[in-house]
Structures are given as C-alpha cells and as structure tokens.
C-alpha cells in the first residue's frame, strides 16, 4: 500500500512540473539524492538568484547561476542547508545589468572587473582608457591548487576567460601595462 501511495505521489509531482512554466517561473529547484538541482523549463537562458541558509549561520549566502534553456544544473551549494530560489530573469537582462561603466582610473581604483557574458562565460573587462595588466586566480571546481594567469587587456577591451573546470575566479592584481 505504501509503495502505491509513493508511486501516486511521484506521478502527481511529475505531472505538476512537466507542464511548461509561465514566463515568470521558468527555473525550479528539485532535490534528488541529497543534491539540489536547478531545472529550466523554458526555451530561453535564465539567470537564477539562489539563497542558502546553513545550520548555525546568521545570514544566508546568495549566488547567481546561469541555467541554459531546457537544462538542469547542480546548485553551487554543497552540503547541509536550505536552498531557495529568490529571483530569476532572462540572461540578456542580467548581462545588461553587469556592463562595465568605469572610466579612467588615475586615482588607483580597479579598472578591470569580472563580468558574466550573455552565454554564461566569465570575462575580464577593462573600463579604462589605458592598457591594463591583470593577474587572475581561478579556483577548481573539484578542489586542488588554484590556477593563476597573467593577461594584458587593451583599453576598453574584453578578455573571455576559460571557465572549464573552474568554480570561481577573482582578480588578484590590476596595474598599468609596461
């Protein structure tokens, strides 16, 4: 009897999520084998904003995740805790929000910033009117040593970074070219 009830419940849950979602709700969080998965039911790329509350933490952690059209991606939060979907929007709108708008930085502030491109890749964008030399550190997704690379970026230029196998990236130094 329990097996039949479980089968009926699984059928209802599958039927509820099988229909295409409205434009305002394309991305869903699903839990399988203790892993949170993000499912995009729409035919366009979506940027999902997640919030994770871990046991004992005071404030939740927020992350943005790009979920391709009709794709399933794992949550960036491993381990225990409660994950909830806070916001979602089309990838094009998210990319437009993160455009670099910095001018020349003679006062020493950072010229090069990391931005997510419309296709989900990370790029270093030089917002100054001078060539910049940057050191970028990338952290592997499955642990191990960090990878560092030194790059020169033309004034107003964009340099896409290779993201294969890396979970995160950050700029370690930003200085004028020699």
How many DSSP-defined strands?
12
- Please report which band the strand proportion falls in: under 5%, 5-15%, 15-25%, 25-35%, 35-45% or over 45%: 35-45%
Mean pLDDT: 76
Shape: globular
Main attributes of the structure:
178 residues; Immunoglobulin-like; 13% helix; 3-stranded antiparallel beta sheet; mainly beta; 2 domains; globular; 12 strands; 2 helices
Question: Could you outline the blueprint of secondary structure elements for this entry?
Answer:
Elements: H1 2-18, E1 27-32, E2 35-40, E3 46-53, E4 61-67, E5 72-74, E6 82-90, H2 91-97, E7 112-116, E8 122-126, E9 132-140, E10 147-153, E11 158-160, E12 166-176
Antiparallel strand pairs: 1-2, 2-5, 3-4, 3-6, 7-8, 8-11, 9-10, 9-12
Q: What does this entry look like structurally?
A:
The chain has 178 residues and is mainly beta. The protein folds into 2 domains: 73 residues, Immunoglobulin-like (Sandwich), CATH 2.60.40; 79 residues, Immunoglobulin-like (Sandwich). The chain contains 2 helices and 12 strands, in the order αββββββαββββββ. A 3-stranded antiparallel beta sheet has the order 1-2-5, with no helix packed on it. A 3-stranded antiparallel beta sheet has the order 4-3-6. It is globular and about 50 Å long. About 18% of the residues have low confidence.
